[in-house]
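A student in our group prepared the protein record below, which I am reviewing. Thanks in advance; the entry in question is below.
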Amino acid sequence: MFPKPDKPGEDMNAMPCGDASGVLPSCAPLAVPYVPFQQMGSQKYDHGEALENGTLFPGLNLPFKLKAKAANIPMTPLTELQALEFVLVELGLYLDTHQDDAQAMELYRQYAALEKEGRARYESLYGPVTQTATAQSKTWAWLKDPWPWNYQEGGDK
């Protein structure tokens, strides 16, 4: 039913499965939900692919059937900002369990800088995205139309 180790005493977990398969503990019972263990140095999607797939890590991209089709997601300035924020959340969750991954921490810093720059650029063109962003304004600008999600592709209302 399951492949047997080539050598006596060899642990199946020691065999590399690749990013797409992860590592399954030998004691894992069948029909129990399982998420592969994230390995340090795992491959990563770019921020657009991460938002499309619902994960930054290809190794955690499980084959769900009802995911959004990338062609149906318009690439707008707001979508770009959402993708950058999504990657920050994903990297933050990864770093919660992999504090010693210096490469991931550096990537987090880079995306944080990109998100900060992107948010400033977006808000200068379209207005605040969150209520707290209005604290930088001279007046309360939160409830003025149009809201960020009311813009259609191309920036027109």
